[in-house]
Amino acid sequence: MNLEAVTVQDCIEMHDYKGLTAVLNDGRVLGFRAEKDPASDGRPAQGQAI
Known about the structure:
two-stranded antiparallel ribbon, 26% strand, globular
């Protein structure tokens, strides 16, 4: 996926269909990561960036 051309709709679909959250910095998408597991102790999931 070209991270320079990611749309808000792309982020919504990644969240809804794959359970991934966009990682942003200075208004740019750096990648996507797995969301934290609500059953865990509150630490973020150790998902691999895509």
